[in-house]
């Protein structure tokens, strides 16, 4: 059973996530904020020392990209961090998951965690076909009584539990898989082996009763797959991207951000993204696309906030390898309007 301290921490972080979604702008909810405000505090509350056991990776050049964090333990746990507003992967074929599992394998890690601070997804490298096992903190906003259950689910990465029995991580995924696998198998039987099921059911039914096939199938259909019975919850605070972009264009609250997009280096980068000359570019050459001369290195420091602004509003994103930036094509019409239209009164 989870400690009272961990349960209270889960409640606090759930409220912090809700408050951030209501008061902070998307570009402010970047990876660094997410890491410092949500992820490291939770790992700290789970018993990991942030100064000696939560390791920030600096990968060699010959290894693809990097993972953000490792937990110093055996077996090793790799953690990929994304900004709070990034939607969680929904299947094992997602590039985030495939990349993270590859990187964990390269570094000899047995387990992988993907998280945006709110949604925590857990993977074992030995269970390649297991469905995504996740814990979502923000569900507590509507169901505070679930705090102890969520805290219990996080015990697989609690330092004391994990170091005493690392298999706890693997076994938790197996147990979650069982809960989904059995009813999903029944659902498959209902679709693919309907005739065989009807014969078996009729053998068990009293011969005196006249029960039609449709009634039998309707009854069997009440046994739903676990994933349909208890759908995974996702943060309600995150609107669709198109709504975000429309808010940026028209709502008075975003006037300050509109002015930033329309001036200086932000405008230069925006103009490059909507131009015919656009193509994905190396992260290290961003300065050339915003008009910074090669020599004044101090000016390049300003690019960090420019990139965070464009990434926060998802006008740009990193390529799969993480070495380049590319535009998000769906956002280009909004970016054009943003650069062309005068500021709202």
| Overall geometric form | globular
Gyration radius (Cα, Å) is 24 Å
What does the average pLDDT come to?
A: 83
Provide the succession of SSEs.
Answer: HHEEEHEEEHHHHHHHHHEHHHEEH
Q: Per DSSP, what share of the residues sits in E-state strands of 2 or more residues? A: 5-15%
- In CATH, the architecture of the largest domain is Alpha-Beta Complex
Describe this structure in words.
The protein is α+β, with helices and mostly antiparallel strands and 345 residues long. It has three domains: 4-172, Alpha-Beta Complex (tt1808, chain A), CATH 3.90.1570; 180-229, no CATH class; 241-340, Arc Repressor Mutant, subunit A (Orthogonal Bundle). The chain contains 16 helices and nine strands. It starts with a helix and ends in a 5-residue tail after the last helix.
Itemize the secondary structure elements and their pairings:
Blueprint: H1 4-23, H2 31-45, E1 54-56, E2 69-71, E3 77-81, H3 95-106, E4 111-115, E5 119-124, E6 133-136, H4 147-153, H5 159-164, H6 167-192, H7 194-204, H8 213-220, H9 226-229, H10 241-250, H11 255-261, H12 264-274, E7 281-282, H13 286-289, H14 297-300, H15 303-312, E8 316-318, E9 324-327, H16 332-340
Parallel strand pairs: 3-4
Antiparallel strand pairs: 1-2, 2-3, 4-5, 5-6, 7-9, 8-9
Summarize the structure.
This protein has three domains: 4-172, tt1808, chain A (Alpha-Beta Complex); 180-229, no CATH class; 241-340, Winged helix-like DNA-binding domain superfamily/Winged helix DNA-binding domain (Arc Repressor Mutant, subunit A, Orthogonal Bundle), CATH 1.10.10. Helix content is 48%, strand content 10%. The protein has helices at residues 4-23, 31-45, 95-106, 147-153, 159-164, 167-192, 194-204, 213-220, 226-229, 241-250, 255-261, 264-274, 286-289, 297-300, 303-312, 332-340; strands at residues 54-56, 69-71, 77-81, 111-115, 119-124, 133-136, 281-282, 316-318, 324-327.
